Amino acid sequence: MRVCGLMSGTSLDGLDIAIVDFSFEEGKLQHDLLHFVTMPYDGGLKQELHKLMDPAAPLHLVSSMNMYLGERYAESLTEALQQAGIGLETIDLISSHGQTIWHEPAVEQKRTYARPNTMQIGDIAVLAERTGKTVIGDFRTRDMAAGGQGAPLVPFADQVLFQSELIGRVLLNIGGIANMTVLPRRGSEQPIIAYDTGPGNMVIDACAVKATSGQRSFDKDGLLAAGGTVDDEWIDRLTSHEYFAAPAPKSTGRELFGFTFVEKFWADGDERGHSSANKIATATMLTASTIATEIQRYIETHDVKEVIVSGGGVHNQTLMGFLKTLLPDDVKFATTADLGIHADAKEAFVFALLGYLGINKMPNSLPAATGAEKATIMGKIAWG
Question: Considering only CA atoms, which of 4, 17, 16, 15 is closest in space to residue 42?
Fold first, then answer.
């Protein structure tokens, strides 16, 4: 089955598209990543999506953007296929994560109508209509219905693709939010553990926008952070945030580390007399230190010898440098590309996999990661 995996993350960089051939041979999953590309969002679309992540966003704008993104995804996919020389007629399934605009896994239970909830927009029926292909999407709600947090979903694929027979590994994805999967060696009695560690690129990106008056949307290669100095005392205060002390499994997003968090962070930096470079350096260390603290919890119990990194953060040399200095020297670093999957393509690849399994009525969730009561078959279907 040839599947197009579509992913747009919290960083709002654009639509990631992975085209993957899947099959089972002698009971073992086989996969071949044929093409990967990111179709960037223009500044206007980014701005509108940011507006919709405000709880006060008008409902009619959310509803309209849901339909618009379905069209935009279809156009982007068509263009990507043409660039790759792959015919739309060869595609068997489109698997779309959609754009998360709200994710609230914990709610005040005293409110009669309150329930854990999440919203990904980019209507799959519109996408099916525009392409003529069957589309599977809206994965997270089924896991929530089973008592889970609806995130993170990538750890399911981490287990399938990257668990080693010999050593423990941490699969670390640094997107807007950073998440990790702790994989003991296959056959170990230790459990698989996975959750969001906290901000990945989200706070760094927002600081880069502020520092450059919108001229840059991210800190390319970590060069802005490299020109600054980390405020260690400030880091101690930042890491006292209640999210970091919360037990796993847990998930987060812009609701905790988005606009409000960054505005306070920037203002606090001003009060502490810091330059923009110092603020970006400290934001970068916040990501590195919160990730490293979580990895250190499992180095001995899970015999962790490797950290395999994916996501946009892998290109931030300052971030990666900080992270390596915070972990023991005998913990080796690699990227998913070293294991056969392009580091930037991982999440789109994963949603292609989740869609492939879902359409074939096979469980595609990992309760150990989300806290669900049982494994489920995630995904709603719009037939082509």
Answer: 15
